[in-house]
Amino acid sequence: MLGLGGAEIVFVPTATTFMTRYLWDLELRAHALANIYFVCGVNKVGVDVGGSSRNHFGNSMVINPRGEILVEASDSQDDIAIAEVDLSVIPELRALWGYYRDRRPDQYGSLVDTVTTRSIPPLR
Hints:
about 120 residues, alpha+beta, Nitrilase/N-carbamoyl-D-aminoacid amidohydrolase
């Protein structure tokens, strides 16, 4: 929905730990590629002082619409990842690749129906 709404850059802030490093990379790159926009993954690094003992792996990154990592921050200390992005590649790729061109919203059906709170079963 963000890409269809015209998003060119999406920020994904998180506090992810070492256990899921592989998924972090895969998720961010897949979002960028499938939606044809830039993704900025922002993650904590290290252990919270006075908080959880879980170690956050950092590695904040900027990913281009082709799913390529442009820049990646440190995995061991506070750091900033800065990349120059060329937004002009987005319309070019959206026209070239079929993700947007060949979509069939008439086939989405219940995926886009509004969900009401009455239709959601209670948590137990």
